[in-house]
């Protein structure tokens, strides 16, 4: 007698399972296709990744998304945070900047918000443009909330670059000051007068003019020279702390008694009105 064939285990799968697996395969293929066709903003991706790593105390620092491609730098982690005593809120303006007129750089204690002269002033002059006035008015509420002193630093390139076709050489007179320096000074004073006229304290603002002597980018290209023509708003948290400590030392008379340690640096002090430290034979 022939033996019966045993049925293999497992049974038939339900019909709906085949349809379901086909649908999931198609869905997976569809999303893979979407991801492969997507355009990912590398700068925003770096901002997100560094923010996540920074929240867990890892990584080197946060990425400045508006730093030019050839000048990419990491921002050191430090004491800066989203307080009112900070220029951090001004970074939001960079996302609306399509022409590269704004730049923001920072480290642990210093923040620099740079504005191109093309948006602030009329060509070759120290007169604020309408666009510059609008921009300053947008910044003003935040600047008024900063407790630390702010430095307004004016920078230019050569006058040939500043004035373009209107540039003329006057061979009959020899200027006593650099015309580029004078233009940078007049420009930064225009901003100083505008800010103080709208509520900012004169004690909270300091003005410096550098002319073409402090280029941040190369002077060998038109783009670099354009970016060097700027006004920097500088917040340095060390300034106020340094002044307060020096004043306490002066009042206590400790300046002539020895060294002064500040952030792992040792200084031999000799302040006005104090005698120098005595040295042994």
Automatic annotation (TrEMBL):
Keywords: Cell membrane, Membrane, Transmembrane, Transmembrane helix. GO terms for cellular component: plasma membrane. InterPro entries: Bact_OuterMem_StrucFunc, MotB-like_N_dom, OmpA-like, OmpA-like_sf. Residues 108-239 form the OmpA-like domain. It is found in: Cell membrane. It comes from the Bacteria. Pfam families: MotB_plug, OmpA. The chain crosses the membrane at residues 15-40. The keyword Transcription does not apply. It is a single-pass membrane protein. The keyword Membrane applies. Belongs to the MotB family. This is OmpA-like domain-containing protein.
């Amino acid at each position: 007698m022939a033996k019966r064939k045993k049925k293999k285990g497992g049974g038939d799968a339900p019909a709906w399972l085949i349809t379901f697996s086909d649908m999931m395969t198609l869905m997976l293929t569809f999303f893979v296709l979407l991801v492969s066709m997507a355009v990912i903003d590398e700068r925003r991706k770096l901002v997100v990744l560094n923010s996540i790593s920074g929240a867990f105390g890892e990584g080197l620092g946060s990425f400045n998304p508006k730093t030019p491609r050839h000048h990419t730098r990491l921002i050191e982690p430090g004491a800066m945070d989203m307080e009112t005593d900070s220029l951090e809120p001004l970074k939001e303006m960079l996302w609306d900047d399509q022409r590269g007129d704004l730049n923001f750089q920072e480290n642990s204690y210093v923040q620099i918000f740079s504005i191109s002269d093309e948006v602030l002033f009329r060509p070759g002059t120290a007169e604020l443009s309408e666009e510059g006035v609008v921009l300053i008015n947008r910044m003003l509420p935040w600047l008024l909330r900063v407790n630390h002193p702010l430095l307004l630093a004016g920078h230019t390139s050569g006058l040939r670059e500043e004035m373009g076709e209107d540039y003329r050489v006057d061979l009959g007179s020899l200027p006593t000051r650099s015309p580029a320096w004078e233009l940078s000074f007049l420009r930064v004073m225009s901003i100083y007068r505008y800010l103080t006229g709208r509520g900012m304290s004169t004690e909270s603002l300091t003005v410096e003019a550098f002319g073409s002597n402090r280029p941040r980018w190369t002077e060998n290209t038109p783009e670099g020279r354009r970016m060097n023509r700027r006004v920097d708003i500088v917040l340095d948290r060390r300034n106020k702390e340094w002044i307060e400590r020096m004043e306490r030392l002066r009042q206590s008379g400790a300046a002539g008694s020895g060294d002064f340690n500040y952030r792992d640096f040792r200084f031999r002090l000799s302040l006005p009105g104090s005698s120098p430290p005595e040295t042994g034979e």
